[in-house]
Amino acid sequence: MGELNVTTSPEFEAKILSYPDFVGEQMKFLRELIIEVAKETPEVTNLEQVLKWGEPSFLNKNGSTLRMDWKEKTPTQYQMYFKCTSRLIETFKLVFGDLFKYEKNRAIIFQLDQEIPVTELKKCIRATLMYHKVKNDLTLEI
């Protein structure tokens, strides 16, 4: 594993801290999981944590933007968002079937009380962080 350089904008940190207590732990868990996958992926050497469209987002030069959020209008769920013009969600459905609940071609939806399939979600995160290098592979190297 190489050294991962993580940079975090103050706006990103403020947003993470602004979530209600009942969803804050889940959002922190997703953040930690994304950083863990980035650390385990030698090609990812820089990870930026920024706010895009008001949502915590993760950027790196080899990957597609990965966002996450919780919305008041759907208080019992939170989401991980992917670029809708990518093949990410389409490929996740191909590889994992109905293991995840999806919102069209843009998000994986989690329920607050759901046990997250961590191994499979890590594969989705890795494919996103490496998207520009794996996008020509049928299963995005999942």
Largest beta sheet: strand ordering: 1-2-3-4-5-7-6
By CATH reckoning, the class would read Alpha Beta
* Helical/strand content category: alpha+beta
Q: Measure the end-to-end span.
A: 19 Å
How much helix is in the residues? 25-40%
CATH architectural designation:
Alpha-Beta Complex
By oligomeric state, this entry counts as: single chain
Task: Name the beta content range.
Answer: 15-25%
Question: What count of structural domains?
Answer: 1
Shape: globular
Question: In words, what does this structure look like?
Answer:
The chain is of the alpha+beta class. The protein has one domain (5-133): Alpha-Beta Complex (Aspartate Aminotransferase, domain 1), CATH 3.90.1150.200. 38% of the residues lie in helices and 25% in strands. It is built from five helices and seven strands. The chain has helices spanning 10-18, 21-40, 88-96, 118-129, 131-134; strands at residues 5-8, 46-52, 55-59, 66-70, 77-82, 101-103, 107-111. The chain has a seven-stranded mixed β-sheet with strand order 1-2-3-4-5-7-6. A hairpin with a 2-residue loop joins strand 2 and strand 3 (55-59). The longest helix is centred in the N-terminal third of the chain and has 20 residues, at 21-40. It is globular. The mean pLDDT is 96.
Question: Which key terms come to mind for this protein?
Answer:
single chain; 142 residues; alpha+beta; Aspartate Aminotransferase, domain 1; seven-stranded mixed sheet; 7 strands; globular
